[in-house]
Specification:
Immunoglobulin-like; 4-stranded antiparallel sheet; 7% helix; rod-shaped; single chain; 3 domains; mainly beta
Amino acid sequence: MAPLAVGILTPAMLNTHFCFNQRPAASHWVSPRYSNVQQTADRFANLPVSVFLHAEAPVLLTQRRVVSVFEGSDVQLTCSLRDNYLPVNEITWFNNQGVSVQDRSKYLLLRTSAWANLTVKDTDVMQDSGEYRCSTSNAVGGADINVTLVVKKYPMPPNVTLVRVMYNSQQRNEVDLEWTVESQGDGGWTGFFLEHRWMSEKPNKRTRSNDSQVLREERASSQDWYINIIQDPDARIYTVRGLTPTVTYQFRVTPVNYRTIGYPSAAKTPGTI
């Protein structure tokens, strides 16, 4: 153990374990347990002393050693000193590749002398899962603590079945859709993709010169699905408008759960009223 600081004796210091570099005369030696603290402080005021503390390497703590989060979310990893140790170097974080997170847009680092919290933004299953390391040191030694981040995919949405696909008028330019969702009590979806595609045109119908560019492009790429996004997970009916009366379409519904796309329903062509 070595002296760590030289200063002036104060009443507060009498509550700290210390000894003098050179012991005073026996008649003036006092113990930290001296009954009259103020009198002792007055007697040795302005006397240089060397304070001896129990020097230790720092110890780091974290709230959770394993953190789980669904992909696309931001997540915070915590790291702090266990006690008020000797002055330590800056607390630093290293990512799951062992690279410092300093000045990287992927991360947000909030830090004081006693703690450092790391936020991993827009988490990705493949990119961000793994062990992150918090590190610091002082004159005695260093300390590290690992935090494991587990980024999970959202569960696959339940299957969807189209139960009604029907033109709502003789004009054949609008179709009403209705569908059901399996295992509705479990949740697990956030919306739907309502898709339709052009299949064929009625016999003896030809493309006229004044057909819209949109229709010509639709016919040229008849295998493409055109998507209407429904962001309401409770939706069960929808009307598709702006259809071409002479064209036969197919429709299907696909459930979506955040970034996970489920299986599309069986495609159906609309019936007539």
